[in-house]
């Protein structure tokens, strides 16, 4: 497992968010992004998760709700990477993957696009 501090990992997540094209970033609505060290015990290999109501499912009733949540998990990511460059790439893929869920894109389509 590669070693990387939580602070350094958070910087990579922030940089991945900064790489989202401005046109898409402007459409992200009511989402908070977090870094956690470990994935839930029920899925310890999980790299990230989107929890919320995708834009495609929000209707006129949507309002006054807590932000959706994207969580990127540090230790599972570090366990599958061999180099810092691998971590950078995996964080980017995971951030894009979870943002895509916010836009209503499912796992099957993300796998087709190379973000699985």
From the alpha carbons, calculate the radius of gyration and give it in angstroms.
Answer: 14 Å
What is the count of helical runs?
5
Helix percent reads: 40-55%
Biggest β-sheet description: 3 strands, mixed
Instruction: State the end-to-end distance.
Output: 21 Å
For the residues shown, what is the average pLDDT?
94
| Topology pattern, helix = H, strand = E | HHEEEHHH
- Spatially, the strands of the biggest sheet line up as 1-3-2
List the main descriptive attributes of the protein structure presented here:
Zincin_1, globular, Zincin_1_sf, Metallopeptidase family protein, about 120 residues, alpha+beta
How would you describe the overall organization of this protein?
The protein has 116 residues and is of the alpha+beta class. The protein has helices spanning 6-18, 22-25, 74-80, 84-102, 107-112, and strands spanning 31-36, 48-51, 68-73. A 3-stranded mixed sheet has the order 1-3-2. α1 packs across α4. The longest helix is centred in the C-terminal third of the chain and has 19 residues, at 84-102. It starts with 5 loop residues before the first helix and ends with a helix. The mean pLDDT is 94.
Task: Give the secondary structure arrangement, pairings included.
Blueprint: H1 6-18, H2 22-25, E1 31-36, E2 48-51, E3 68-73, H3 74-80, H4 84-102, H5 107-112
Parallel strand pairs: 1-3
Antiparallel strand pairs: 2-3
Helix pairs in contact: 1-4
